[in-house]
């Protein structure tokens, strides 16, 4: 009879008759049928071919020791390969050969042992199975009561629950003592710098020339033909002694030239471009990858990391992907010598969004 | 008087092994461990090897990683590369990158060890994942193993941490971009994000300290935790004794399998060498993480189609699937839901994974120990939930390759993302329903086979001209494999002792109904007899 009756709060124990009594516990909503099949016991042992046929046994034995000897051969070969395949010739092929032949030797050494041991275990070692008895994981009731008693006694002798003032003051002290260690982590970053401050400014300032990445050669407006795109850094970045990568991670810019009538510029930003030449931050506003892929026909920029797409013709607003904000625009102009220069720094922080941004 | 002479009346000749073990035992008392564990039965099934694959690849990682530490220098100081790899000669890069190149191009066998380390790491995480799936789908997380499931889950998270920190060490273009993404992610966390990133990188991204910090985590803190937890995890496998599948002679109260010494030792030990050999073969033949092709980290360039190591893919994919515009300015602060949502969703997903054993135990109210592994079909709802989880994970994972999918199959980038968004949301439901129906159908088939026998392939023509296929009854051993499981039924809501129905009980009852309202009970003896008498 499958049982259908369960109390709400405490589940009635089902008739767990055929489970071993030592594993008794609540069966919960398990259905234990009264006429379930009985375990038929172990199947009769079936001997392996190596148990019955001495020639097969011999062959298995040969296979096993051959594999072990092959392993020795592999080890020797790996050592030999170390010497036979030098790689000091500045030649990538030599590295490949060194890697491959040492690897083949090691592989043979390892697989020889592995397959040999498994084959030995499966075909030659006596195949009788062990049968262990499981005991409940929990200790006996008496031991458990004993443990509880230990705690009770310790509590009584120390007065941990009784002397509440002492206890609470100890808890307070234990909560407070790690705090200095936590504070030490402030030293992970320089004391005299503030992240928001740093994130809000880049190396660009009024008059900084736009230079080619990575050469650092300044760019003339006349070099930028229609349809072209340049990877740009501020002039002087390559000469920095310190913080080159940090500055570059904020100041990297993409420079593109479109037909001026293809640009839909807002009136306040019309002066930020020069004859269809526009400069936008290259650092994605999603999580900061370089937005390095420019599709000339559609004027779309694509971030290769998470596929955000930006429309250069419309102030780099997001047209697809997880980014929200347009790429910040760098206002540019041309100096007396015809070089492209920045009118100012970016007017907003570049790169990924952060909490205090705005 | 020496102990040896009191203990045994000095046999004429004693083997070296006997002498040696007595020497050790007199000083350590280790014989008790050998006697207790040496002949322990270890149940056999191919799927039980997955955890071993993880363990054995971890050993490769430890050994190869130790070798690498002798050469790798975790410094971000700038140098001009002056090693053997000609195309990069004179290029400015960090010491970390240069020393990684030296390991690859100037130390014989160095590339081999580096590639073993990386391949073994990929295999390690994969084996842990598959091992978790095995444990999940066979219900091997049930009492008394719930806590070991939590340990195992923690190991999985630690392995991901090890993977990511290791991936970031060479300071090449790819790993730098990976760190850039982490920086962006961290900055998107409300309130603490900006400062967390600032402290993590020791100032502005990328700074000059992150590689050294990750190195400390990678070779000290995380491995120490991993080794300790692996130890505990395996000790508990011994204490609990391994689960076994139902079979003739296998009872909830026994554990049947080859003894540890010698057969299990030979097979598992041999298997260990096979795993090592396979990793070695892969390292000999297949390049992994060719940093010399990527070059040193520079915040400006990036190549299209770059992929993280596979196990980070699901997180990267989650970022890609967020539709445009999920970022708002509220109360003068920036709320980056395009970052928060993936983080929270993945967090909830992982939380459900680690909590599942406790949820299922609560729903069932079953407090017995379970040592017989379920066949997945016999727990249809659990199996279906697992399939839904796998589908969800797979969709996120696929999304990490959305650009590769688009270019390889000539699809639009947008189309791939839309499709994967749909799969992420709908796929789990579809997978759930299909899996549950398939499980129930398989259970019905099992019943059918037990009651009416299996198709023998023998066609017999009856005197009346009718053709039938003879069905052969199962022998008792095969039958036992199909009938020895328990089914559960939905919990009936009843007021408790104080005459109340609590909200907890309502939730539990509805979960229980969801789990168990479609249930197929195993065939009983009575049913089999009834079906036989109906036939004759």
Automatic annotation (TrEMBL), chain A:
Transmembrane stretches, start-end: 64-85, 97-118, 170-189
Supply the alphabetized keyword list: 2Fe-2S, Cell membrane, Disulfide bond, Electron transport, Iron, Iron-sulfur, Membrane, Metal-binding, Oxidoreductase, Respiratory chain, Transmembrane, Transmembrane helix, Transport
Where does this polypeptide localize?
A: Cell membrane
Can the keyword Repeat be found in this entry's annotation? no
Q: Which GO terms describe its molecular function?
A: 2 iron, 2 sulfur cluster binding; metal ion binding; monooxygenase activity; oxidoreductase activity, acting on paired donors, with incorporation or reduction of molecular oxygen
Q: Where is the composition biased (Basic and acidic residues)?
A: 43-56
InterPro entries for this protein: QcrA_N (IPR045603), Rieske_2Fe-2S (IPR017941), Rieske_2Fe-2S_sf (IPR036922), Rieske_Fe-S_prot (IPR014349)
CC per GO annotation = plasma membrane
Q: Which Gene3D superfamilies match?
A: Rieske [2Fe-2S] iron-sulphur domain (2.102.10.10)
Query: According to the UniProt entry, which residue ranges have a biased composition of type Low complexity?
Result: 9-24
Reply yes or no: does the keyword Transferase apply. no
Q: Name one Pfam family in it.
A: QcrA_N
Q: How does it sit in the membrane?
A: Multi-pass membrane protein
Which residue range or ranges hold the Rieske domain?
250-341
Specify where the region named Disordered lies, as residue ranges.
1-57
Q: What does this protein do?
A: Iron-sulfur subunit of the cytochrome bc1 complex, an essential component of the respiratory electron transport chain required for ATP synthesis. The bc1 complex catalyzes the oxidation of menaquinol and the reduction of cytochrome c in the respiratory chain. The bc1 complex operates through a Q-cycle mechanism that couples electron transfer to generation of the proton gradient that drives ATP synthesis.
Family statement: Belongs to the Rieske iron-sulfur protein family.
Concerning PANTHER family, the annotation shows: CYTOCHROME B-C1 COMPLEX SUBUNIT RIESKE, MITOCHONDRIAL (PTHR10134)
> What is this protein called in UniProt?
Cytochrome bc1 complex Rieske iron-sulfur subunit
Organism of origin:
Agromyces albus
UniProtKB/TrEMBL annotation, chain B:
Keyword terms, alphabetized: Cell membrane, Electron transport, Heme, Iron, Membrane, Metal-binding, Respiratory chain, Translocase, Transmembrane, Transmembrane helix, Transport
Major place of residence? membrane
Gene Ontology cellular component?
A: plasma membrane
Gene3D superfamilies the UniProt entry points to? Cytochrome Bc1 Complex, Chain C
Enzyme Commission (EC) number: 7.1.1.8
What biological-process GO terms show up in the record? Answer: respiratory electron transport chain
- Location in the cell: Cell membrane
Q: Where is the Cytochrome b/b6 N-terminal region profile domain?
A: 20-246
Which Pfam families does this chain map to? Cytochrom_B_N_2
Q: How does it sit in the membrane?
A: Multi-pass membrane protein
Reaction catalysed? a quinol + 2 Fe(III)-[cytochrome c](out) = a quinone + 2 Fe(II)-[cytochrome c](out) + 2 H(+)(out)
Molecular function (Gene Ontology), one example? oxidoreductase activity
Where, by residue number, does the polypeptide cross the bilayer? 48-72, 119-137, 149-169, 215-239, 271-292, 339-363, 384-409, 415-435
Its required cofactor(s), as named, are: heme
Quote the protein name from its UniProt record: Cytochrome bc1 complex cytochrome b subunit
